[in-house]
């Protein structure tokens, strides 16, 4: 569920921000974002960290990077770069090509991310994560190729669906 909240916020925030900017202006979007941060601060006051015993050791640069984690970390880094590109440029792309506003894209992406996370979690526990890593990357590549070569209202929404599935399936 923690991962779900992270993915949902990442997918939904751009849609909400764009809606606020379009209807009320940039200042309203930044004011709303500040209000959300204040709410997060208030909610975090009730969090009590668990006591743990930290072992103080000098930093060993040889053990700072776990070689076993490099393939997955590298794959996630590259995947999230594509998500970052969408988040940064989809609104501008939509405006330039006459497609529905970026908020529509992010709303669809957020809904599919939520659905994807809810459904893939149990399946990943039963069948392993591999299928979601591969299908999520394929879905994101498909989304980007649809946007690049077939920009239209239907493919725009289909790209949002593919992006939501990919983001929701891979990031856990």
Task: Describe, in plain words, how this protein is organized in 3D.
With 172 residues, the chain is an all-alpha fold. Helix content is 78%, strand content 0%. The protein has six helices and no strands. The chain has helices at residues 2-24, 26-44, 70-97, 102-127, 130-149, 153-170. α1 packs antiparallel against α2 (26-44). The radius of gyration is 19 Å and the shape is globular. The protein starts with a helix and ends with a helix.
Main beta sheet: none
Number of helices: 6
Q: Which parts are unreliable, with pLDDT below 50 for 5 consecutive residues or more?
A: none
The strand count comes to 0
Q: Fraction of residues in helices?
A: over 70%
Order of helices and strands: HHHHHH
Share of β-strand residues: under 5%
| Measured distance between first and last alpha carbons | 10 Å
Oligomer: single chain
Structural class: mainly alpha
Categorize the overall geometry.
globular
Mean of residue pLDDT? Answer: 84
Rg, rounded, reads 19 Å
Kindly summarize this structure in a few lines.
With 172 residues, the chain is mainly alpha-helical. The chain has helices at residues 2-24, 26-44, 70-97, 102-127, 130-149, 153-170.
Detail the topology: elements first, then pairings.
Blueprint: H1 2-24, H2 26-44, H3 70-97, H4 102-127, H5 130-149, H6 153-170
List keywords for this structure.
172 residues, 78% helix, mainly alpha
């Amino acid at each position: 569920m923690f991962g779900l909240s992270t993915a949902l916020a990442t997918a939904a925030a751009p849609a909400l921000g764009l809606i606020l900017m379009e209807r009320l202006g940039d200042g309203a979007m930044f004011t709303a974002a500040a209000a959300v941060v204040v709410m997060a601060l208030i909610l975090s006051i009730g969090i009590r960290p668990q006591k743990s015993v930290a072992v103080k050791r000098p930093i060993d640069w040889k053990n700072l990077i776990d070689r076993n984690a490099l393939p997955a970390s590298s794959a996630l880094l590259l995947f999230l770069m594509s998500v970052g590109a969408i988040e940064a440029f989809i609104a501008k792309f939509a405006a330039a090509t006459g497609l529905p506003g970026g908020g529509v894209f992010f709303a669809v992406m957020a809904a599919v991310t939520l659905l994807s996370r809810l459904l893939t979690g149990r399946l990943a526990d039963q069948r392993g994560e591999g299928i979601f890593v591969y299908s999520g990357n394929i879905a994101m590549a498909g989304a980007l190729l649809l946007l690049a070569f077939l920009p239209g209202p239907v493919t725009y929404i289909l790209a949002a669906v593919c992006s939501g599935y990919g983001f929701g399936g891979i990031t856990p």
